[in-house]
Each structure stands twice: as C-alpha cells, then as structure tokens.
Amino acid sequence: MKLRLHVWRQAGPSVAGAFETYDAPDVSPDMSFLEMLDVVNERLMEAGNEPIAFDHDCREGICGMCGLMINGLAHGPRAMTTVCQLHMREFADGEELWIEPWRATAFPVRRDLSVDRGALDRIIQAGGFVGVATGNAPEANSIPIGKEAIENAMDAAACIGCGACVAACPNASASLFTAAKITHLGLLPQGQPERYRRALRMVEQMDLEHFGGCSLFGECMEACPKGISIDTITRMNRDFLVASATAEQERQVRGD
Amino acid sequence: MKLDSRIPAGPLAEKWDRARFEYRLVNPANKRKYNVIMVGSGLAGAAGAASLAELGYNVKCFCFQDSPRRAHSIAAQGGINAAKNYQNDGDSIWRLFYDTVKGGDFRAREANVYRLAQLSVNIIDQCVAQGVPFAREYGGLLTNRSFGGAQVSRTFYARGQTGQQLLLGAYQALEKEIAKGQVQMFTRAEMMELIVVDGRARGIVVRNETTGNIEAHTADVVILATGGYGNVFYLSTNAKGCNVTATWRAHRKGAAFGNPCFTQIHPTCIPASGEHQSKLTLMSESLRNDGRVWVPKAKGDKRPPGEIPEGERDYYLERKYPSFGNLSPRDIASRAAKEVCDEGRGVGPSGLGVYLDFADAIARLGEDKIAERYGNLFEMYERITGENPYKVPMRIYPAVHYTMGGLWVDYNLMSTIPGLFVAGEANFSDHGANRLGASALMQGLADGYFILPYSVGNYLASVKPEKLGDDHPDVRAAVSAVRDRIATLLGTKGKRTVASFHRELGDLMWNYCGMARSRAGLEEALRRIPALREEFWRNVTVPGSGESVNVALEHAGRVVDFLELAELMCKDALHREESCGGHFRTEHQTPDGEAMRNDSEFAYVAGWEWKGDGAWELHTEPLHFENVQLSTRSYK
Amino acid sequence: MIARFWQSSVGKKIVMGVTGVIMVAFLVVHVGGNLQLFLGREVFNKYSAILHTSEEALWLVRIILIVSVVLHVIAAYQLTMRDRAARPIPYAKREPQASTLASRFMRVGGVIILAFIPIHILNFTTGDLHPEFARGDVYGNVIFAFRDWPLLSAFYIAAMVFVGLHVYHGAWAMLRTLGIAKPSPRPMERTLVTALAWFIAVGFMLLPLAVVSGLVR
Ligand SMILES: Cc1cc2nc3c(=O)[nH]c(=O)nc-3n(C[C@H](O)[C@H](O)[C@H](O)COP(=O)(O)OP(=O)(O)OC[C@H]3O[C@@H](n4cnc5c(N)ncnc54)[C@H](O)[C@@H]3O)c2cc1C
Ligand code: HEM
Ligand code: HEM
Ligand code: SF4
Ligand code: F3S
Ligand code: FES
C-alpha cells in the first residue's frame, strides 16, 4: 500500500513546528504503525536527513511510552490499542494521515512527536502510593481482599500512563489517569489510611501541572488503550469531596 | 583479577543470616552523608533506589525512558515465583532452591539461589502491602498457578500483567521517595561511561537525551540495574531501548563479564512478518497447556493448515518427548522448532514458524472456555497478525527472551570493581545456564528490596563519604571520552544507517550464536563481527547534532557496544565446550539430540576481563554443589 | 480550606454540580407551575398568587437562585479559561469520538441561558420589557407575549433546546461530579436523566407552542 503522511516536525520545545509531507510507498499491511515510521525514517536517514522523533520502547502495548495522534485520534483508530500495536491493515491504500504529538500545555513537545510527560509522574509523587517502607510488610495473606474488589482494583491499575486520555480530552485533562490510580489504591484495604489525603493532593497536583478540568466529555475513555472507565473519575470526585468535608482532620494529621 | 564469590561460611540455610549479621552498619546519622547512584528503574533499580532512600541515603536514580515506570520489567506477563506453599502442595524454600539450581542446569551458585528462594517469601508480603493486585480466590486469599512446567503452584500473578503491577508498586515507592527529596530522578538520561577513581567506582557520565548535555554524576557507590542485553540479536522480545551500554562500559573499566553466551530463547513468540520487523512479541507460555504444536510431515507443504489431513501432520513435541509433550522446557521446545524449520517443514510466508493449534482444545472444551483462558492473548495475536486463532492455528517461532549472562558479582552483588554493584538481569545472575519462568521478577526484587539495602550499607561502612569534584582528572577524562565518541559518530557521515548495522549484527548472532551453536559457526561469526565493527566506524551515518533530541545518535551509541559484546558472546560460546541450559553446542549432544553437559571441566562461571580491543582474559569461579546432586535433565 | 476547595478544578466542578442541582430543582418546579397554564387563567393566576404570598420566602428562594447562578457562572467561566489554556494548539484534524452533542454545547448553551434569564425576568417578573404587563395576571402576560411577539416565542423555544441539552449533560455529569453515580459497564448511558431533560425542555416549550398555535388563548 501507499500512504501520504503529514507529520508534525518541531526541532525543539521553544521553536515553532509545522507539518511536513512524506510519501510512504510499499507499506506492508503486516507492519505496525511504528514500523511504518521506522521505514520512513530509514529512508530519511539514508538521504542524510534527520529522522522523525517519536517515543516507543516495549512495542507491546504495556510500557506506555508510545503515543501520537493519527488524524486526531489518540493512538489511532483501533479501540483498546496503543499505536505500537496498531497495524497498517487498519488503513486503506492511498490514505492521507495527519500525525501529531499529544497536545497539552502540561506536555511540552521535546521534538517532533515526542513530548515530556513528567507531569504524570509528579501527580503520582503527590500521593499515588501506599506509604510502606521496605521490610514493614505483614504476611501477605493476613489481609483478605474480596475477588470483586481485587478485580476492580486491577481494572484501574491497568493504566499504562501513556497520556492518551489527556491527548484526547478536549480540556487536556489528566482526570482519567489520576482517577485510575486513586481508584486502584482506594479500592484496597492497603490504600485506606491515605485514601483522602491522596485524593486531595493528587487533584491539587493535577491542577498545578496546568491540565484542564473534567467536563465529563468521555473522550478519554474512548481513547484509553486499557479501557479505564470514567467511573474512576466519579470515585476520585467522591473521595475529593469527602476529603474536603473532613478537612479539619486532614489538617490535624499534617500538623498545620 | 580473582573472582572471589565471598560466600559466607556455614550451612546453606544460615548463610544469609550470617552475612547480614557480619555486615557492618552505617550509623543512621551518617547515612545522609553518603551518595548513591542507581542506574536503572526496573524492578531491581526502582526497588533498590526506594529502599536505600528509605534508609536515609541520598540516591540519584537514572533511566533512559521518560518515566521510571516504563522500564522493561513492565512487560513481564506470566508471574513471580515464591515459596509460600499457600497451595499446600509440598512447596518449600528448599524445593524452590532445588528447582532453580536444576532448571539452571547446575551453572548457578547454590548460596545465591538459596537466598533467592528465602527472600521470595518476603517479596510477596512487600508487594501486597504496596497494593499490588495479585489474583485472589473468592475467600479473599492469594491464588497461584503452576508455571513453566513446575510441579507445584507457586506462581503469583496479576492477570497477564504481573511485571507491570510489580513495577508500578516499586515505581510508586520510588516516587514517594522522590517526593520526599530523598531520591533525585533523572529520566531520559543515558549512562554512557563509568567513572572509576583509585580503583573504586565513583560515578557515571550520562547524556541528557533532551538537551544533549553530557553530565558527570559522582557518588560513593554506583549500582547498575540496567537489564539484559538480548537486543544484541536485534530481534528479541525485549523493549527497543534495552541495551548493554551501561554494563559494557563498566566491563571496559574493569568489571568482569560473567557467562556472556547464556541466552534464553523463548519458544512461543509471534514470527517475524518481514524485513521491517522491529521486535518480536512473546505469547505467554501458558498457551502450550492447551495448544498442540505441529508442522506438516512433508517438506515445503504450502497448503493452508486446514487442508492438511491429520495423518500428514507431525506433532513433533508429542512424538519426541512423549511424557512432557507440548509442555517441554523452553530450550527443548525452541530447538525442536528450529530443527523442523531447518528441515524445510516450517510454516508461514517465511517458513520460519510452527503451528500452535487449539482446534482439539476448542472441540474438547468449547470456544468459550478457551476464550476465558486465553482471550487476551488471542486478541493480541489477532491484532498483530490479522488472523483469528479460533479458526486458524497460531503460528509461533522461538525468539531471544532473556540473558542469563551479565556482569559478574559476588555474593554481595558487587562486581570486580569495588563500589560497583550490579542487580537484576544486568548481573550474571542466579539462573545459571537457563532461567525458569517467573523467576526473573523474583530475582530483580530480591536484589532491590532485600539484598542491596544491606550489602551496599556494608560497603559504605568501609569507605568515608567524600565529594568528588567535576574537575577531577578521572571525571574529566570520562566526560571527554563520551564527547569524543559522540563526535566521531556524528562526524563519520557514511552511507549506512545504524539500524542496518544492528540488523546485520542481529542476523549474524541469531545464525551463529543462537539456539544451536557450532565451532565452525562461532569461528565464522568471530571473523565477521570485527569486520562489521570496522565498517560501522567507517561507514555509519548519524544525521543531526548532539545538542538536542537525536534518536539516531541514541541508537548508535548502543549499537557501538553491542558490536563489541557480540564478539565476547561468541568467544564465550566457543570456549564452553559443552551444552548446558540455553547454550547448545551441536558438537556436544547425545545421539538423540539431547544436551550434554561437561561437569568435570565446565562447572564454573566464566568471568571475562577486558584487555583492550578484541582481547579478553578468562577467569573462572568454580561452582561447588554440596546440597544438590548433579544430574542430567530428562524430559523424555 | 474553602479557598483551597474553590481553587481546585474538582472543587469548582462540585460547586457547579451543587448549584446545578438547585437550579434543576427550580426548573422542575417551574415547569410544573407553568403547565398549570393549561388549567385556565384562574388556576394559573392563583398559583402565581400563592407564590407571592410571602415576600420573605420568595426572596429567600431568589437569593439562593441568584447565588447559585453567580457561582455557577463564575466557576464555568474560570474552568473554561483553564481548559482553554490547557490545550493552546488545536489538532489539525479531530472529530469527537465519544462526547455527546449536549456536552459540547454546554458553554454555548450556558451563555444563551445567561442571556435568557434577564430578558425573561424583565419580561415576566418586572414587566419592563412587556408593553402590556399586568401585575397579578400572569396568564394574560404569558398569552400576550407569546401571541403578539412571534420572535419572542421563537427565542424561548430555541433557548429551551439549549436548556434541555444543558440538563441532559449537566444532570448526568452532576451525578459523577458529586460522586453519586454507581459504576456501570456503560457509563455514558443515561435514561432517567434523558427523561428529565425532555420533561423540562418540552414542558417549557409547550407554553409558547400552545399559544402560537392558538390552542390556548
Ligand atoms: C516479554 C517478556 C516477558 C517476561 N515475563 C517474565 C515473567 O513472566 N516472569 C519473570 O520472572 N520474568 C519475566 N521476564 C523477564 C523479566 O521481566 C526481566 O528479566 C526483569 O524484569 C529485568 O528487570 P531489571 O530490573 O533487571 O531490568 P529492566 O526492567 O530491564 O530495567 C532496566 C532499567 O535500566 C535502565 N537503563 C538501561 N540502560 C541504561 C542506560 N544505558 N542508561 C541509563 N539507564 C539505563 C532502563 O531505563 C530501565 O529503567 C520477561 C521478559 C520479557 C522480555
Ligand atoms: C446561567 C448560565 C449558565 C451557564 C453560563 C452555565 C454554564 C455551564 C457550563 C459551562 C457547564 C459545564 C462545566 C464543565 O463541565 O466544565 C455547566 C454545567 C452544568 N450546568 Fe450550567 N450553566 C448555566 C446555567 C445552568 C442552569 C440554569 C442549570 C440548571 C438547569 C445548569 C445546570 C448545570 C449542571 C447540572 C451542570 C453540570 C455540573 C457538573 O458536571 O457537576 N446550568 N454549566
Ligand atoms: C417557556 C419557558 C418559560 C416560561 C413560559 C416561563 C414563565 C415564567 C413566568 C410567567 C414567570 C413569572 C412568574 C411569576 O412572577 O409569578 C417566570 C419567572 C421566572 N422564571 Fe420562567 N419561564 C420559562 C422558562 C424559564 C427558564 C428556562 C428559566 C431558567 C433558566 C426561568 C427562570 C425564571 C425565573 C428565575 C423567574 C423569576 C422568579 C422570581 O424571582 O419571581 N424560566 N417564568
Ligand atoms: S488512563 Fe488510559 S489513556 Fe490515560 S494514561 Fe492511563 S492508560 Fe493511558
Ligand atoms: S475526555 Fe476529558 S472532560 Fe473528563 S471525561 Fe475525559 S477527562
Ligand atoms: S511502545 Fe510500549 S506501549 Fe507502545
């Protein structure tokens, strides 16, 4: 097959970018999308040009490193599929594709299609953990957890931190990402002691990072390669509300 | 150089206790005066960095991805072993120890493996406390499955995403320490050189992959947890960024490389679909529980599988290994697949594939049951190949999966360079010549959570905390070595891309140092690798500059080191005149094609010392088996 | 603490949700009241008179509503600004995949409702915009306005479309913002809320429609 690609090229974070057009002849339907870009890059480099920078690592849909917009769709057209797992048979011969980076103030472009998603790590730093130090753990089976709870927690824990939810959200909100972690830990007994302070702090950090708010558009859920549900956002909001209502306690705990 | 394993005296079961007691302690008030560098944020790195930070050391942690959460450990699917004996099926620390030593074909240290089995129990406790959602029974307690042919159910799992969940647990612990300021995290930072001062590892040189800056970081101790080097084969199940650069640079600075030729090849991967193939995808081994492996009996039979009658199919695993059949161990299943393909009976467009057929299982159990068991895997297969495995048999082929070799370390995980510790897949490890399923995660976490915090402390207690300035001559020399290397790569302006060299190197290694190795093949490889390396330095093209994001340059830096490592792997494979575990020398097999170990001559760890371009000196660490009987594996 | 709550995007959203509930509740009552028009001049005017029996109670309700609208609008404005700033460069190509039309019209609809409210009050409550305003004869006021002023009817009907859309998304979103909604395999689906939106939109529209069509005179 043959494709025409309009790829966002941007030399660095502080320079303006623009689309450039490349023809990709002899694309095999068995290639993954990133392999198709590899081939385009090989050709660019053979001619002494700089390759298109894009992020990727595992190419198995689990590390969350890859991510780009294809015709405005985060990770491309196939549901529940990261772009590294997207194969060219999803496209028609002769198609034109617009390929862009995740666009959000919180995700500055490093180069071309590669963005800086450090903001997501900082949201986790704000409270996305259980505060146990190594060596403190009680015997694993001393805390029974119902199957239902563990399955629901696992559903939320499946988030790969790719940022597609932010990219797809018209508000560039990181709510789905943040809520997924709050839900994973909030459903487990281990996560209870820090449940409410976690919600307060992670939400606060999300705002500090210049993500938008959630208007419940639901685009994030559609784009999420792991099918994280917006039900997690409901839960985040509830925890935030309860946390705010019991703020006095929280302040006492902090001692300020 | 002497390879002193520093195994504590005393009975096997008491060695670790004894070591911990004998370790010197750092006064709590002094801990913050020590700086620790941790390279890598996988299971070993993240767990180690978090645990050391919790103790009060100042930790700097580095990874090349944009977040520590993306380390390759994330991709592990199957599970993690632990001798909890929750299933009451007779498991014990001793049994896990025994299985691991035997599975490794008797090329691992007894003491290390025993400690690993002991610590496995604590790992599960730790991970559960962090909120890792391991699978559970309705009663709320943890469940297990049997994995990789083990006779007991000791594998803990979180759906097909065990590595992800374990890594997220460690990552979250790490982020908690970052928030406290106890760990400083450097992402998109590629370690390109080790700094050794007065014989001690004192720092690293990294390239900031965003700005292109070359930065020196110094500390009192350096830990490498940088994963495996399977990508020397170009195509492997490893993530694209996996590299040997960190460990190779340490090797060049004096760290012995242990058993470099020990690589594990996994039998159930999706075959390559063409030239463009960039990596191979593992399909969980559990598929072999219900799938039957076969190829046509006749050579070059190009009929679609459905049209090949039962009588013209060769279920070769069931035929050759009647008692284990489709569940034969990884190395055996892999080699058998290669054999039938070499005979010209392989399937698929490339002829490099065998069928994994679920028709019988579907007929027996129904499509629903199969979907329940393997739905996700079938979906993944369909996504990648566009074929529906409920209707057409899957095609699978072996692929490089794990490297048992790595930097040699003593019982305390310290390499032959004082102050340089190595953890996780990066060290030559506790797996001997073959790793059992679900035990790499266990090892990475044991190293990170439970060994490094003590053994690194012991080392630090013996040295005074001191700062090393950026203008120290050894630091400056290391920085300029990196600068020069980058300048040469950018300045060569040849005709061939980095990837084309990598692919050629990979082909060469796969053909000559892959599943079956022969003297003639290895010698051929040893002739061709230096020539390829020479051409690389003469004819590589790396467009762009060093001052910004340059993906070609990142790749080039890694291929430089693979080109040297490849030669050592072949040398090691050539010297090891035996077949053991993942290392199969065609000269050393029984008449019916089984591996033949040579315990009298090769029951040792090969530790190679770098002696300058293309020259190495072999040192050996003899292995003593006092608690298990050396025996020959048999899966007939 | 209240400042911290208000500063947070989720906090603001919760304020919008709470004020939204208040306003929805008002609208439900209002529709119910309005539909009494069909019971004739007497009933309708009596209903209005009852509402006006206690000035204190009336003002209490009014203040609650005014505060609600003000908070709701300020929060909406600030969130909208935050959301815009979060995505300064738009995508070259992007088609919505999952979001409902209603959700995408929240801001436009909000502005229309905001414009509607003063016109509406000047029209029916103070009578400043109503040439034939007769205090006490609400029935007459309504009939006159919609009968002799087709443009006003059209504006009302159009505004009610947006009110309906606003409630369709708003009431569903509120259940999630306030953390009330139960987890569901298809969280985007809504049934009760759809009925509520139809009830409010159509309920209001019936008045101008009935008058214009001559059904009520
Ligand atoms: C597909 C797949 C499935 C697997 N399934 C299982 C399983 O089910 N059970 C099991 O036990 N094992 C499994 N394994 C093996 C296991 O996942 C790995 O061996 C283990 O996770 C390695 O962990 P690690 O911490 O040593 O290294 P990694 O997780 O590979 O981490 C390496 C770290 O080092 C950093 N790094 C590397 N090089 C540099 C550099 N030059 N500069 C700076 N940073 C660097 C990386 O950024 C990364 O953070 C599987 C492996 C694969 C490939
Ligand atoms: C007065 C002018 C109004 C404006 C400018 C306005 C604007 C908005 C906007 C922009 C939103 C979406 C906010 C977001 O999700 O980011 C919203 C939500 C909402 N609005 Fe309004 N609105 C107005 C009036 C009303 C009225 C009259 C009602 C009552 C029916 C109402 C009920 C709601 C509800 C329930 C929500 C959902 C809040 C949530 O998600 O919790 N609004 N409004
Ligand atoms: C076709 C639609 C509508 C009709 C016919 C209508 C009719 C009326 C009438 C007749 C009154 C005066 C009642 C009285 O003074 O006794 C009134 C008051 C009012 N209406 Fe409506 N209304 C409509 C829609 C709306 C909508 C959509 C809103 C809100 C967004 C609204 C908000 C109000 C308010 C705030 C008052 C003033 C109450 C007061 O303070 O006295 N109305 N309406
Ligand atoms: S919630 Fe989904 S889309 Fe968002 S980061 Fe996680 S996996 Fe990616
Ligand atoms: S698309 Fe955006 S508005 Fe909320 S529901 Fe998803 S984060
Ligand atoms: S590259 Fe890892 S998820 Fe796509």
Short structural summary:
Chain B is 37% helix and 15% strand. Chain B is an alpha/beta fold and 636 residues long. Among the domains of chain B are: 266-400, Alpha-Beta Complex (Flavocytochrome C3, Chain A, domain 1), CATH 3.90.700.10; 473-608, Up-down Bundle (Methane Monooxygenase Hydroxylase, Chain G, domain 1).
Give the overall shape of chain A: elongated
Query: What is the H level of CATH, i.e. the homologous superfamily of the largest domain in chain A?
Result: Alpha-helical ferredoxin
Number of individual domains of chain A: 2
CATH class of the domain at 473-608 in chain B: Mainly Alpha
CATH architecture of the largest domain in chain A: Orthogonal Bundle
- End-to-end Cα distance of chain A: 64 Å
Average per-residue pLDDT of chain A, rounded, comes to 95
What percent strand of chain B?
A: 15-25%
Distance between the termini of chain B: 42 Å
What is the share of helical residues of chain B? Answer: 25-40%
User: What name goes with the CATH superfamily of the domain at 473-608 in chain B?
Assistant: Fumarate reductase/succinate dehydrogenase flavoprotein-like, C-terminal domain
Task: Give unreliable regions of chain B as ranges.
Answer: none
Q: How are the strands of the biggest sheet of chain B laid out side by side?
A: 5-2-1-9-17
**Any idea of the CATH topology of the domain at 473-608 in chain B?**
Methane Monooxygenase Hydroxylase, Chain G, domain 1
CATH architecture of the domain at 473-608 in chain B: Up-down Bundle
- Give the class of chain B from helix and strand content and strand pairing: alpha/beta
- Gross geometry of chain B: globular
Structural class computed from helices and strand pairing of chain A: alpha+beta
Hetero ligands: flavin-adenine dinucleotide, protoporphyrin IX containing FE, iron/sulfur cluster, FE3-S4 cluster, FE2/S2 (inorganic) cluster
